[in-house]
Recover the amino acids of this structure.
């Protein structure tokens, strides 16, 4: 069981020694140096999966990499929070001293330490047990760590905090590795659902089913003929609905596709199959009763509790609406949130316009809440074939995905953001979406020169930056754009990405090493609840570029 303690206003994860992934720290460090520069380089193609081989990092509880902080230390993958090694010019009495620890400093000059001294909620010394004695005044509280490991506080640079909690409150379909398991879980929940109430859930992914095809409404109808059912795919970019749900929402063979979305229809009858992609999901989701204020609060607190237990000290919440922002502020004011949150506001729309008018919030609630970012979703996901590609999908030549926002709606927001000192982060997975958003960013940066910006170097981001053409890859560093990437996406997608993209396009996919070598800072995150959201999975994926069972090319 991981022990998470509060350390003078900072949060550090302390863990008993357990069986490490590597036999020794030196072996792990050697693996990092080798694999980070060679084996995790994206030039190696993603491996081909033999028929029948399963390795589901998104959903399988048994195949998770369990947290074991004896092998933490990869720089540049997950951003670290609030770590200071400040040797005071003269000794001062500390408030708290932590001794007898296994402390990772992430400092090449002094990678390990034994003790930490804290004064006025700030770390004033990191070093040996012996050297901390000069900080041990009469009132200093000494804590024996008993050899526990301490690491600098970790930040998840991309997750969805409300959805993490909501997944636990609705039907959680993680671990459904067959269609039969999927249907069995639904059938069990139908019995427990009050007549007339919606059955909602999230977490299924068909990639590991046999055959790996989307579920259909007819399959749901057999077990839920009267209960409206709406179940979101793990990536959040697709959902399946049964006939009862489609009828309530008046979705039929005559319903046209909305911009930035698709209603999948049977090729023979033209009737909806039940699958709704991206913006088409709103045709049904908009009719589902909204969660109550109490339910939203419970979801947020559940999500925060999970993140803290996993060892995260700060999360960057990749998108929120005004009611969610108001709730976060309320709970901070009541002292119910201990996690630091760097929040983004969804745009375009009224919420983004209000935010651009009011401006950024920096370090509210004792440095625990910052809101300075507009979040745009620009295309879909690779697994559900909504990611916007320059050429058609290799396994579905009739589609190349789609953009989910109109470029004309984004241009004024981007210019206003530069003038107001607001960061922009845009979800872009396909190579077409990445090229288009880099074009839009470049146009805005030229239209609003540095002397007209509130912040000269705005540090705009592209979330995921998953599939890049070779000619667009160097543009990130040239424009000063931060690729915000999730290592676990590569090891989850490696079983279907080759079929979606073909081997040639994989050369620019999940290209962390090439982006770093080009001069980029890469922000690392988990994208929970799309992925498991566990720090050790992200470290492992970034270092080894292997599935959690060790599968690679």
């Amino acid at each position: 069981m991981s022990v998470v303690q509060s350390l003078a206003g900072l949060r550090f994860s302390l863990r008993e020694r357990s069986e490490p992934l590597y036999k020794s720290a030196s072996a792990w460090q050697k693996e990092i140096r080798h694999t980070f520069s060679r084996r995790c380089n994206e030039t190696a193609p993603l491996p081909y999966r033999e028929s029948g081989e399963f390795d589901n990092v998104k959903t399988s509880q048994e195949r998770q990499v369990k947290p074991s902080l004896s092998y933490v230390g990869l720089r540049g993958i997950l951003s670290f929070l609030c770590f200071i090694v400040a040797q005071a010019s003269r000794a001062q009495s500390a408030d708290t001293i932590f001794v007898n620890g296994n402390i990772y400093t992430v400092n090449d000059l002094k990678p390990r330490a034994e003790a930490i001294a804290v004064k006025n909620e700030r770390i004033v010394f990191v070093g040996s047990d012996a050297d901390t004695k000069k900080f041990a005044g009469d009132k200093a509280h000494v804590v024996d760590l008993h050899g526990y490991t301490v690491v600098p506080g970790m930040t998840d640079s991309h997750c969805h905090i409300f959805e993490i909690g909501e997944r636990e409150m609705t039907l959680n379909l993680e671990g459904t590795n067959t269609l039969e398991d999927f249907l069995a879980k639904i059938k069990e929940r139908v019995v427990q659902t009050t007549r007339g109430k919606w059955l909602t859930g999230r977490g299924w992914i068909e990639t590991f089913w046999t055959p790996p095809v989307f579920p259909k409404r007819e399959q749901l109808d057999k077990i839920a003929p009267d209960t409206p059912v709406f179940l979101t795919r793990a990536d959040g970019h697709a959902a399946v609905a049964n006939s009862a749900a489609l009828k309530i929402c008046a979705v039929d063979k005559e319903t046209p596709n909305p911009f930035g979305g698709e209603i999948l229809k049977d090729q023979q009858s033209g009737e909806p199959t039940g699958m709704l992609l991206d913006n088409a999901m709103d045709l049904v989701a908009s009719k589902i009763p909204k969660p109550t204020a109490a339910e939203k609060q419970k979801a947020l607190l559940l999500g925060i509790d999970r993140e803290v237990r996993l060892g995260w000290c700060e999360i960057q919440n990749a998108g929120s609406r005004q009611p969610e922002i108001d709730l976060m502020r309320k709970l901070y004011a009541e002292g119910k949130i201990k996690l630091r949150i760097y929040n983004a506001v969804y745009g375009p729309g009224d919420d983004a316009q209000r935010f651009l008018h009011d401006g950024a919030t920096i370090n509210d609630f004792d440095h625990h809440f910052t809101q300075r970012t507009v979040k745009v979703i620009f295309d879909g996901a690779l697994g559900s074939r909504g990611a916007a590609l320059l050429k058609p999908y290799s396994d579905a030549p009739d589609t190349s995905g789609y953009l989910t926002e109109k470029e004309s709606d984004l241009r004024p927001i981007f210019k206003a953001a530069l003038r107001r000192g607001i960061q922009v982060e845009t979800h872009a997975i396909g190579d077409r979406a990445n090229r288009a958003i880099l074009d839009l960013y470049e146009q805005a940066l030229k239209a609003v020169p540095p002397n007209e910006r509130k912040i000269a170097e705005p540090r705009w981001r592209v979330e995921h930056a998953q599939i890049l053409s070779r000619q667009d890859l160097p543009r990130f560093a040239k424009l000063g754009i931060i690729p915000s990437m999730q290592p676990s996406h590569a090891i989850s997608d490696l079983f279907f990405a080759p079929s979606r993209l073909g081997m040639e396009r994989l050369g620019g996919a999940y290209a962390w090493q090439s982006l770093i070598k080009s001069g980029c800072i890469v922000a690392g995150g988990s994208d929970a609840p799309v992925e498991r959201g566990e720090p050790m999975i992200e470290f492992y994926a970034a270092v080894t570029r292997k599935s959690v069972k060790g599968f690679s090319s």
About this structure: Residues 293-310 form the longest helix (18 residues). The domain at 164-285 is CATH 3.10.310.70 (Diaminopimelate Epimerase; Chain A, domain 1). Residues 1-57, 59-90 have pLDDT under 50 and may be disordered. DSSP finds 17 helices and 25 strands in the chain.
